[in-house]
Amino acid sequence: MTPNVLFAAGAKQWATYEAPLRRALDRSGVAAHLATELPPEEVDYIVYAPGSAVQDFTPFTRARAVLNLWAGVEKIVGNPTLHLPLARMVDHGLTQGMMEWVTGHVLRHHLGMDAHILHQDGVWRPDVPPLAGDRRVSVLGLGALGSACAQMLATLGFPVTGWSRRPKHISGLRCLSGEGGLRQTLAEADILVLLLPLTPETENLLDAARLALLPRGAVIVNPGRGPLIDDDALLAALDAGHLGHATLDVFRSEPLPREHPFWAHPGVTVTPHIASETRPDTAAQVIAENIRRGEAGEPFLHLVDPKAGY
Amino acid sequence: MTPNVLFAAGAKQWATYEAPLRRALDRSGVAAHLATELPPEEVDYIVYAPGSAVQDFTPFTRARAVLNLWAGVEKIVGNPTLHLPLARMVDHGLTQGMMEWVTGHVLRHHLGMDAHILHQDGVWRPDVPPLAGDRRVSVLGLGALGSACAQMLATLGFPVTGWSRRPKHISGLRCLSGEGGLRQTLAEADILVLLLPLTPETENLLDAARLALLPRGAVIVNPGRGPLIDDDALLAALDAGHLGHATLDVFRSEPLPREHPFWAHPGVTVTPHIASETRPDTAAQVIAENIRRGEAGEPFLHLVDPKAGY
Q1: Least Cα separation, residue A40 to chain B (angstroms)
Q2: Residue B50, CA distances (Å) to A121, B8, B69 in order
Q3: Sign of CA dihedral A37, A43, A49, A53
Q4: pLDDT < 70 regions, chain B
């Protein structure tokens, strides 16, 4: 029987994703019926994004899975009407883009590029930066994104410590976990990269006390989620000279309001949530593969653990 | 017999290099006599840098080799009194530092970082950069520095073309050579990295005609040698909007004079010859290894071909 796939991710995404999804479904051999309007009781799979008109999953009595179009699931995982398997997006293009952005901004801070980009003042200051081997980088979060970034930074020569809630072992990295591991990871971070999911446990993880554990002059790079950091504590640590800089791509409110102090602070670089994005072609392949798996009775890829929240 | 090693690289370098050289010689088991003053006819090896007081090599009747402290040899290779083997510096620290600087600045331009670093104006412009796979990078020069940079850029996902005078084959790169290869390499360079040695053939290699071969909007990154580029042609190509940007670390005259138009040009980033430098510890090991080889009758490492000039 032809499965019915409801695209419940909004009209704007439909314009972007319809053609890639149809191509990917064709290529995977699944003769699915893909539409933006379907009787709920006839839907087999729901392609989803936050802000969808679908907020009550109760009427979807036959559905087999919700396939999230984005990597972050914090706006759906707590939905009390959701009792279906929920799959996150793990998109090769998203991972690659994140790796490029993180590697670029870590190198930017390591090399002290801003001094040259901002101050072409005619004064020759030939201060050669140290080698990467003398710059300690810590990455919080060792999922698909965090581990890809951490491994590339290690390939470049940085000594990299990765931290995750649960113990992990990843080639080329020192992996720490738990609260004690977090303290050590922060204490040895000349540059700190945040790639944790947003959960009740990680919200405001970087509060004043934990920011104080960072070495003086440390730089924070946050392409993960805005609420991982306590904004006021961050500004206070910058103003006190404890932190060297913060490059932030994600915020509690996006677009970041024009009056937010991050914009004008010389110690903060705001980038407008561009570190990476799901790429339609590669993401459509992930969705199609999960529908193929569902039809073949194979386990879904990238299932969310509702208790962990990611 | 204990070999006599003349340190002819100046008093400032002596202060930096004496201790690392003595350590490296001890470790390599060569009981050499290292000094800044020796009767020329008793010298076995000359450690050299441009600007040395030694300009006439004729009195060094017994010397076995000149060991250059830097990677570039353009200021000594043409010395008509030099008939000794001349070894260039190939220093792991120099290569690593160059790889970091080049990778960082290529990513900076690829990601469009300057827009964020320079313009924190409160306007949210969520334009996600393309992936590295869609940004073509060309590296001119495939010596120790060029090939290390090109391979790391390929590891990051950029399609990399490397060009060298003589044909080469390097894993992960498309390698072109000769004049036809140069034209193709330039025509397909969204970002162009210059790591050629300075020779009569490479001086002004990037003149107006060759700059015109680059795609519109191309970015040039030059950590090689200043005279590889015709300065006036570069400024004209920037002013005409043909080139997107130039990040230059090396210049015909250093320090770059304050009145040079590069400093004030919005399309040029000047960095003060900091892309990399020879690191005393690792460089001293290379010098000591060549002295050990000379004493053991083994071939020297990193010999310069006087005809090629590098």
Answers
A1: 34
A2: 28, 9, 9
A3: positive
A4: none
Query: Which chain B residues touch A122 with a CB distance below 8 Å?
Result: 258-259, 263-264
CB-CB contact of B302 with B90 (8 Å): yes
In the 8-state DSSP scheme, what is residue B253? S
DSSP A59: T
Q: Does B269 touch chain A (CB under 8 A)?
A: yes
In this structure, the number of other CB atoms found within 10 A of the CB of residue A16 comes to 16
Decide: residue B155, CB within 10 A, 0-12 exposed, 13-18 middle, 19+ buried. middle
User: Is there a contact between A258 and B123 if contact means CB atoms under 8 Å apart?
Assistant: yes
- Decide if A138 contacts A162 (C-beta within 8 A): yes
pLDDT in tens, A260-270: 999 999 999 99
User: Residues of B numbered 79-118 whose beta carbons fall under 8 angstroms of chain A's beta carbons: which are they?
Assistant: 93, 96-97, 99-101, 103-105, 107-108, 110-111, 113-114, 116-118
**pLDDT tens track for A235-280:** 999 999 999 999 999 999 999 999 999 999 999 999 999 999 888 9
Contact criterion met (CB < 8 Å) for B157 and A100: yes
Residue A50 has pLDDT above 90, yes or no: no
Number of cross-chain residue pairs from A and B with Cβ atoms under 8 Å apart: 140
A225 catalytic per annotation: yes
Q: Residue A308's pLDDT band (boundaries 50, 70, 90)?
A: confident
Q: Which residues of B touch A118 (CB under 8 A)?
A: 117-118
Collect all residues with Cβ–Cβ distance below 8 Å to B258 and sequence separation of at least 6.
A122, A123
Structural domains in chain A, sorted by start: 4-91+278-296 (3.40.50.720), 92-270 (3.40.50.720)
DSSP state of A197: P
* φ, ψ dihedrals at A162, nearest 5°: -110, 140
Decide if B225 is catalytic: yes
ipTM above 0.85, yes or no: yes
Nearest-CA neighbor of B287 among B37, B101, B78, B13?
Answer: B13
For residue B141, is it left (φ>0), alpha (ψ between -120 and 50) or beta?
Answer: left
Is residue A19 within 8 angstroms of chain B, CB to CB?
A: no
Q: Which of A70, A91, A113 should be substituted to probe chain B, the one whose Cβ sees the most B Cβ atoms within 10 Å?
A: A113
Task: Please tell me which residue in B22, B183, B210, B273 is annotated as part of the active site.
Answer: B273
Helix axes A92-111, B144-156, angle to 10 degrees: 140
Each residue's pLDDT tens digit, B41-69: 999 999 999 889 999 999 999 999 999 99
Beta-carbon neighbour count of residue B16 at 10 Å?
Answer: 16
Rounded to an integer, the average pLDDT of A96-112 is 98
A127 contacts chain B (CB < 8 A): yes
Residues B62/B43, Cβ–Cβ less than 8 Å:
yes
Would the CB atoms of A100 and B118 count as touching at under 8 Å?
no
Which residues in A lie closer than 8 A to residue B115 (C-beta atoms)?
none
